[in-house]
Design brief:
alpha+beta; START-like_dom_sf
Length: about 140
């Protein structure tokens, strides 16, 4: 199966990056690809077998979708593996890099949209996370 990998370095300690990535009170502030979208709700049962879900929708209410699945591996604060509701696998790693944290996401693409579009969408969300995490005091 083909995979897509994206990554970024967040200028925050790994413990904070892990917290911002996984706590629903933070997820709702970054889990969308552009400023005209939002994430009105998020749930996260952070344990193997635990389920997660979030709602992504356009701020104007014109469209939206739920995004969810279940965790297969949780190694705090280093690694997450999960399976999406459509059975695609995702691996997220968090590695110390100097005073920051490198996040690497590897995911199996879906078949409806071009690979480049999927990579751009996931990367936009990752960059939104970086902006959020680095802007926290």
């Amino acid at each position: 199966m083909k995979t897509i990998t994206i990554e970024t370095i967040v200028n925050r300690k790994r413990s904070k990056v892990w917290e911002y990535w996984n706590q629903p009170k933070h997820i709702v502030h970054w889990n969308f690809a552009s400023d005209d979208w939002c994430c009105p709700r998020a749930e996260n049962d952070l344990r193997p077998g635990g389920k997660f879900s979030s709602r992504m929708e356009a701020k104007d209410g014109s469209m939206g979708f739920d995004f969810g699945g279940h965790f297969t591996l949780v190694e705090s604060p280093a690694k997450l593996e999960y399976v999406l509701e459509d059975d695609r696998k995702v691996l997220v790693t968090f590695d110390d890099v100097g005073d920051g944290t490198q996040i690497t996401e590897t995911f199996e693409p879906e078949s409806m949209n071009p690979l480049e579009m999927q990579e751009q969408g996931w990367n936009a969300i990752l960059q939104n996370f970086k902006k959020y995490a680095e802007g926290k005091s």
